[in-house]
Amino acid sequence: MSEHHIVEPDLKFIKDMKRAGGDSMKKCFQCATCSVVCNLTPDDSPFPRKEMIWAQWGQKDRLLSDPDVWLCHQCNDCSEKCPRGARPGDVLGAVRNMSFQHFAFPRFMGTWLSRPAYLPLVLGIPFALLWILIGMYGNWTVPEGELKYSNFLSVAAIEGIYITLFFLAVIALAVGVNRFWKSMVHYHGEKGLMGAPVPNLLSVLPGILAHGRFKECGENKDRYWGHLGIFYGFLGAATTTGIFTVVYYYGLGIHSPYPMSNPVKMLGNISALALLVGALIVTFKRFSGDDKKSSYYDWSLIVLVFGLGLTGWASQFIRLADMRSIAYPNYFLHLLFVFYFFAYLPYSKMAHLAYRTVGMVFARQAQRDLVAKEDIA
Ligand code: SF4
Ligand code: SF4
């Protein structure tokens, strides 16, 4: 006697998927062209065809805990070849966006960062907080003498708020990623896992750093450069901030402003340049039609990268040129972008660095990522 399974679609999930960029999924008629075209999918139970039917059926838990979704690098080779215009590459992108919302800690933050309707609240909170802090510990009036941003808002107030935000973001991201891992084990760990997470993490890291999987793209090869610029731009900016705070400020007692010839300062400027060039490539590709679908998550990240890079750069040039009338407003904007970056990192597209790494580690343990070229580097 045959066994019957009752499929109970999560209708709200289907609606959320459409909002997150997966509105074309209904067009799929399961021809499997996409799975044949994809250079990154394994032979056994290949993606993205199976994910398309799960998405249509509203199989939320199975889909959001699917490590295969994180093996996809959204080259959209499959979308170009899909005879129905179902855009499977974008649907998998939407599933990844949904992960930040679904596994978020606390959950309401995932909802806030997923919808433009919450944008006034999301921006209003840091705006009000910074305004109050400046009223308490700073000054909107530029004093005579050398232009210093520490006169605008004290270093202690800035560090108090941003170091706190940093640790809260790390905790929130760790909880979210842990929920994701448990979900993968529950729904996709039935065939067993090879080895422990740490050795597998070490084995996937070189590939992530080299962005090797992006090079497998056929239609959309330039995404490699855009993503590489943003990835190393953020890495360089984080390194710069860490060295200035921990080594210079606390270790050596050397306070800002630092000369342009300072090697760490140079690293910061090069990182900002990499961020901006990366964001320009990504933006150009979105407007040129190579990356046809862009979600609210995509645009939020692009605006954040431009905002951080431009206001950060402008801060130092405004100081050097002694442009006093715009110095503090620009610095306020910069602080606002930095707040957004830290506070909302676990729920925005920035979080995909952590989710993708964890998804790829699981895929390695489940032997899902061993395609034709073993461990594409
Ligand atoms: S997404 Fe397109 S190519 Fe893939 S199975 Fe569906 S119809 Fe076919
Ligand atoms: S977007 Fe690219 S990597 Fe992702 S499923 Fe399609 S072909 Fe594969």
TrEMBL record:
Keywords: 4Fe-4S, Iron, Iron-sulfur, Membrane, Metal-binding, Oxidoreductase, Transmembrane, Transmembrane helix. The chain crosses the membrane at residues 117-140, 160-181, 230-251, 266-284, 296-314, 326-347. It holds the Pfam family Fer4_8. Residues 61-92 form the 4Fe-4S ferredoxin-type domain. One of its GO terms (molecular function) is metal ion binding. InterPro entries: 4Fe4S_Fe-S-bd, 4Fe4S_Fe_S_CS, HdrC_iron-sulfur_subunit, Helical_ferredxn, NarG-like_sf. NCBIfam families: qmoC (NF038018). This is 4Fe-4S ferredoxin-type domain-containing protein. It comes from Candidatus Aquicultor primus.
